[in-house]
Amino acid sequence: MKFHITLIICCLITSGVFAQSSAESVKEKLGVYHTNFPQEKVYIHHDKPQYVLGEKIWYKAYLLDAILHQSLTPSQQVVVQLIDPNDELMSSATIWIEDGGGSGDFQLGPEWATGKYLLRAYTAYQRNFEQSFFFEKEIRVYDAYAQIRNPDLTMEELAETGNRNTSPQEELSTRTLMFFPEGGDLVDGIVTTVGVNAYDQNAIGVKLSATVHDADGELVARFNTHDTGLGFFNIRPEAGQRYTARVMWGQEEVEFDLPSVRNDGYVLRVREKRDTLILTAHTTIENGLEGGFIVGHIRGMLFGIIEGLTGSEAILRIPLSETPDGVLHFTLFKADGSPVSERLKFVYRKENIPEVQLSLAGDNFGKRNEVLVSVASSDTSSGMTLNGSLTVTELELATPHKHASDIRTYLLLESDLRGRIPSPGFFFEDKAASRKLLDVLMLTHGWRRFEWKTLLRDPTVGIDWIPENSLTLKGHTTKYGKPDNPVQARVFISTLSDNFNMQELVTEENGEFVFNGLQGFDTIPLLIQAEVFKEDKAKKDGTKEARSGSKYVDIFIDPVMLPLVSRDEARIDPEIDPGVLEDYFAVSRRTQVVDSAYQDMMSIQLDEVTIQAEKYNPVEEQHKALMLYSEPDHRLVPDSMTGGALAINAFELIRGQFPGVNVVGTFPNYNAIIRGANSISGDTYATYVLDGMVVDVSLINSIPVERIAFIDVLKGIGKSAVYGTGGNGVIAFYSKTAEQMQTSQQVIGSMNYMYSGYYKAKVFYSPDYGAAQDSHEKPDYRTTLYWNPDVRLNALDKKYLTFFTGDKASVYSVRFEGVTSDGAPVVLSGMFEVR
Fold first, then answer.
1. How many whole angstroms separate alpha carbon 349 and alpha carbon 800?
2. What is the pLDDT of residues 593-609, one digit of tens each?
3. Residues 345/814, Cβ–Cβ less than 8 Å
4. In the 8-state DSSP scheme, what is residue 698?
5. For the chain, is the Cβ count within 10 Å smaller at the N or the C terminus?
6. Which residues pair with 561 in a beta bridge?
7. pTM as predicted
8. Containing H/E element for 396?
9. Which of 253-267, 663-677, 685-699 is predicted with the least confidence, judged by mean pLDDT?
10. Could you give the CA distance from residue 345 to residue 399 in angstroms, rounded to a whole number?
11. How many CB atoms lie within 10 A of CB 631?
12. Separation of alpha carbons 226 and 253, rounded Å
């Protein structure tokens, strides 16, 4: 992205001292805000638009600064989360970012709920600002076997299961028509363009026709809205008049009021003519522009101040060559420095598009043929690099809609405007209708990042979350056995791995501690030890002697409080046609059947054997009175487990220990699903019992592992029904008695802890059919043929990528998304056919 930061001066008008000081004050406060509180953007590119249960979501996270879209950011790690339609956290990963990018993957469990999953990504530092700055996108997830289990389901009904979402949403009227005068107000006698946004109760744009009438019923304007719900009309409003729009909405005529007309006010208009932006400032106040000024910025970076306005009207011209690409924000200020009118304008010039090309060595291939793809840069900019990701998917079944969101629409448009942007790709088409409605979009969606009045009053932000460049572990210490009695302690932390590391600190007086600077991928075993803090003893020779304190200390790891789940501004791709969805399900079922069959052939399956013995178990006998069943389907005794002490809570104990029990989520929000429940309803979580009583999952998440005597699993409805559950199964936990706790092998003042480090992404399986292997007998019907999250090249460089086609004859799409080192987004695509 190449542009000049230019100070634009209106040379025909003299500037007063007062206006100059006001303009300088605005400039200074804007500079303070962005110097001290730099903003970040996160974008996620994933391999295809929708999924079925059992598939894997492959993704790449991009972390960029919010102004220049370059990789110089305060943070170096991103949290990526997958949240189900019930707003339960199913998976979470911390991604290490290198040169602006890092990759990961999420496995969709076969028993998970269907519906809209929220893919959310953010940095800890972003939590200091509005949550709308997070990357949030809804992804539809389906059950490919739903119609097999329930033949009465139609494809239309099945398609609708991908839209299921129980998250509380803002209640919208069934009919909403909103009006947005250019500059902000309707002002007496000033011709104004009014943007229109029409949408239904699902916030989906509505196409309609309408007329505008004054209080006497006289027709003053007509307008139509596009499929996106956007439209516009021009009006010369009169003070004292009341204007209404009459709309045929379905079979009913409905009236909507326009905003009231102000007697006096200001209007800032922006028009694009050839290669020039024309700004017109109007006011009904005599000499109301005297000493006023206009500020232009993009994403908060100042690119121009026009000072010294006079009179009641000013016309100003700005060459487009002097403006950067993206959402330009112009604001008209009065002489006293107060903002009175603003206008957004989107600029995207072809000459700024990076010179990068994607090409294929042919457009027709046979089955299991090698395909060569090249990504080449002809950009001669010194030091320019490109960081991107590439996916190859079946065109009809698994390729994003042409109007879907991508890295270009997100960085330049969506991330800087409030609200959802309908079909963002539509606004980047080189068509007159797209360009006109893009300008209407600038009227109907406000600037997202800050408000002038707030910034000018106080340009500072309270920082509770510092930028993270390493892993952090937070916790607190208390007196042994007294969780409500904090104690200051000396805490030691050691990594029990090949790269041994040890840190030591003294907690705050309230027992709180924070370890920074931790590094590592996957799960890191830690040994945490603590003792009551004692001041070092002073010796006669002036030195100090360390003193050990009591080991009777309990150590607690504090869970990271998650941001609230909000879907109000989450973007989502257009829906797929039910007929296409039916084909997608058939291919997915075939792929999963093949995967399962070949996995069984290549592994040894051990049948479950139940061994019954008449053996007295004192632990069980002490809890038998609490049991409403005779025999569990499975039982786990933690003290008999190798490595059980390394688990942080009960769910980590049972993960992988019981057939058909799937642990989902992350600490401290784990949950479990017992295979066999109905995944269409989404209500598949197990029922939890603690010492004979049904309890909430949050209580199970908080049980100390060392206090669990044993865990039973009840699968059948006959056994679990006694606890009032349906067919979801029961997991019953039983606590150790005081006597059993005394004989426990737990070491006082220490704990083993499995710490989740940076996620290490799986390697996408891409078979090489050029070399004969036994595994190649397996049929290949994948809808994602290739995924490469790390495509990098320099200026005048060319990168070659190869993969093989599968066994399905179809048309396939190659799609590349990335960003250059100077902040320009790149989107490339190509197609080929397999015969």
1. 29
2. 888 777 655 443 434 44
3. no
4. H
5. C
6. none
7. 0.83
8. helix 395-398
9. 663-677
10. 31
11. 11
12. 19
Cα angle: 804, vertex 807, 808; to 5 degrees: 110
How many Å from the N-terminal Cα to the C-terminal Cα in the chain?
41
Residue predicted with more confidence, 426 or 738: 426
DSSP state at residue 685: B
Q: Which domain holds residue 653?
A: 618-736
Provide the token pair at 206.
Answer: 């509505």
Query: 776 with 748: CB under 8 angstroms?
Result: no
The two structure tokens encoding residue 151: 């033949």
Residue 246 lies in a domain: yes
Q: What is the pLDDT of residues 53-72, one digit of tens each?
A: 999 999 999 999 999 999 99
CATH code at 725?
Answer: 2.170.130.10
Rounded distance between C-alpha atoms, residue 87 and residue 118, angstroms: 8
| CA–CA–CA angle 283, 287, 291 (5° rounding) | 100
CA-based nearest residue to 138, from 787, 575, 665: 575
CATH for 226:
2.60.40.10
CB atoms within 10 A of CB 222: 11
Residue with the two structure tokens 């632990």: 619
Read off the DSSP letter of residue 667: T
Q: What is the pLDDT of residue 6?
A: 36
Rounded CA separation 53/70 (Å):
36
Last residue of a domain, one of 262, 297, 318: 262
pLDDT one-digit tens code per residue, 400-417: 888 999 999 999 999 999
* Separation of CA 829 from chain center: 24
Interstrand relation of 708-714 and 471-479 (parallel, antiparallel or unpaired): unpaired
Exposure string (b/e) for 372-389, b if CB count within 10 Å is 16 or more? ebebbbebebeebbbbbb
Which residue, chain included where needed, has tokens 């028993």?
A: 111
Under 8 Å CB-to-CB from 317, ≥6 apart: which residues? 276, 277, 278, 279
Write the CB contacts of 72 (distance below 8 Å, at least 6 apart in sequence): 65
Number of domains composing the chain: 2
For residue 805, being part of any structural domain is answered with: no
Any domain includes 776: no
The string of pLDDT tens digits covering residues 118-144 is: 999 999 999 999 999 999 999 999 999
What residues have CB less than 8 Å from 232, skipping those under 6 apart? 193, 194, 195, 196, 223, 440, 443
Cβ-contact 346, 817 below 8 angstroms: no
Does some domain include residue 725?
Answer: yes
Sign of CA dihedral 249, 255, 259, 264: positive
CA–CA gap between residue 702 and residue 697 (Å, rounded): 9
Give the residue from 736, 769, 803 where a domain finishes. 736
Q: Give the helix ranges, DSSP H, for 468-606.
A: 578-601
Dig out the tokens for 762 from the structure.
Answer: 């799986």
C-alpha closest to that of 161 among 681, 509, 556, 623? 681
CB 332 within 8 A of CB 266: yes
Rounded CA-CA distance 401/572 in Å is 11
Distance of CA 564 to the CA centre of its chain: 12
